[in-house]
Amino acid sequence: QVQLVESGGGLVQPGGSLRLSCAASGFAFSSHGMSWYRQAPGKERELVAVINTFGVGTYYADSVKGRFTISRDNAKNTMYLQMNSLKPEDTAVYYCSEGDSWGQGTQVTISS
């Protein structure tokens, strides 16, 4: 079965950086586009970034464009989200997704 496991979240100060990872198993990872979503307290889950199967095509929400970079390593069945210049409004639980499958999420908190 599909399994997605996020890691790398934590507490950082504004302006800091984090790199999230999503380890995938149970499906042909290299044949599937992947996505990162996030959900802040009291808000709906929102799409953050998408990457295609080869890692060449990407999409970013306007709120993270220029600060976040999505990437993948098909040899390791892992997707990443490099987050730079973090802001308090980036605070959320971050989820990786493939189709209808979701990981358990990793908490990212930006606070001084």
Helix and strand run: EEEEEEEEEEE
The total of helices stands at 0
Indicate the proportion of strand residues: over 45%
Shape: globular
Model description:
The structure is a single chain. The chain has strands at residues 3-7, 10-12, 18-25, 34-39, 46-51, 58-60, 68-73, 78-83, 92-98, 101-102, 106-110. With 112 residues, it is an all-beta fold. Strands 2, 4, 5, 6, 9, 10 and 11 form a 7-stranded mixed beta sheet that branches. It has a 4-stranded antiparallel beta sheet with strand order 1-3-8-7, with no helix packed on it. A hairpin with a 4-residue loop joins strand 7 and strand 8. The protein is globular and about 40 Å long.
Helices and strands, with pairings:
Blueprint: E1 3-7, E2 10-12, E3 18-25, E4 34-39, E5 46-51, E6 58-60, E7 68-73, E8 78-83, E9 92-98, E10 101-102, E11 106-110
Parallel strand pairs: 2-11
Antiparallel strand pairs: 1-3, 3-8, 4-5, 4-9, 5-6, 7-8, 9-10, 9-11
